[in-house]
Amino acid sequence: MKAATLRRAYLHEATLMLALACIAVRFVPPARLFLWANSPPRRVRRFATGEVDWVTWAVDNIGMRAWMNAPCLPRALAARAMLCRRGIASRLCLGVARNGDALAAHAWLEIGETKIIGGTEAAGFTRLAEFGEGR
Fold this sequence. Notes:
alpha+beta
């Protein structure tokens, strides 16, 4: 498959998954949402590192666009869904940090010890929960 076609396919899938994740975060109860996030992929492929890069690129690219403007939790859920479809195990992490007198929350996605979605912002957050591989 040509690079342009592959790029377009990943962007289309990321758009759909981000839209579904935004809807799910808004309307699905959190217990049910995190129960899904805790389920393992149906099949496991251990050596699919190139696909991880494509998924990360597509979700970040679409998620930051003004018309999508997806926050961290829908981005992490969308990337987790795309990786599960490809048989790549990942871990959804939730954390909090003190921001003055208020608490700030953040979600990120990890594969092993590598933070692939929301990792740059995750440095100041204390991990509260994790769902998926390695729990």
